Amino acid sequence: MKIITPSFILLSSGLVKNLSVAFDKEVVLVAPLKELLDRFKDAQTIECKADTVLMPGLVNPHVHLEFCANKADLQYGSFIPWLHSVIDKREELLSRCDTKLISQHLEQMLKGGTTAIGAISSYALDLKATATAAQKVRFFSEIIGSSPNMVDALYGDFVARLDESMGITREGFYSGVAIHSPYSVHPVLIKKALKLAKERDLLTTAHLLESRAEREWLKSSSGEFKPFFQKFLSQDRAVNDVDGFLKLFRGLPTLMTHANYANIDELKELSQEQHTLIHCPISNRLLGSKKLDLHKVQEAKVEWILASDGLSSNYTLDGFEQMRAALMMQDELELEPFALELLNGATIRAADALKLNCGAISTGRAADMLLLDISSNTEQILPSHIILHKYPILEVYIDGKAQLGESHGRS
Ligand code: BEZ
Ligand code: FE2
Fold it and tell me: Closest Cα to atom 2, ligand 1: which residue?
């Protein structure tokens, strides 16, 4: 057992002071120091330097690690030109991406405070790196393909990748199923993959209504996607409409990524079916999507969480940077309550959505925690301060184990 006494602790209800945390692999108790010392007489006390915050490790529920090699290869500003650039550069980007590069990015994410991820994997190129990462991982094997004559081959390849991921036995590694999107996956393929997900009790995720072009294509088989589908897939019609797609997920709470172009009825359906909306503010801005109406999302009582998406549509996988962007973009939401919502959307709610027992400094949760150096002797600290100030991370704990070598030091 260890006991740590930071200046402040970030709970899901807000920041508190004059409390300590007793933990081993899990958080055992949050209470005044004296009470913890009385109850846990053999505990090792960790001496923190002055002026620190202890907060839960960040959870990034949607990242495409296989696109880590991208910096300046892809075209930003609008979804369809971006998609064309992905198709043009995909082979090259994938050839530049290997286990070593992905592991480096995972390590950088760890130092930046991300202790759990949802990895969307198209080719299983990220399996080795995520299987050996320090972080907790929900590894979503993705299925894609709108051509009916490819269904069997694509399903076979998907099951092989899924089986491989389910063969990973390390603690903290879990499998899942990703359906790429309503425009890119044939309904027969979706049904087969979701049936398997149900049989194997696997968590599911999908992209949904990310762009205006997608909305138009699904509604009327027209718009910017039309020449795209004609050119690459010789298709004139969308394989799903929005309602039909959502019906396939009834009774299967799913992580739906983006949904910028979902209307109020669709948002209500997400809420009713207990789907979670994954918001990727930087990715949305770079690909020309309209800003997610978070007020409307909240009014419809849709649970939302925060993610980066991949480096194919972002300049960083850093969790604090995603919160900063959202805080600045969502200018109609009141600052401090929204800052706390963002912190919860990047920790406890994201962990719950990924079905991981972390994301909060609370009895029984995994002791996945960050110790921040706030470097100022202050009476009060606000949620926005934590998001904005790039406070140095002195230590990252996963399952109670110091990942940076307890370099915050004993004074
Ligand atoms: C497909 O494989 O059918 C597909 C892939 C990307 C975008 C659209 C369709
Ligand atoms: Fe994505």
Answer: 145
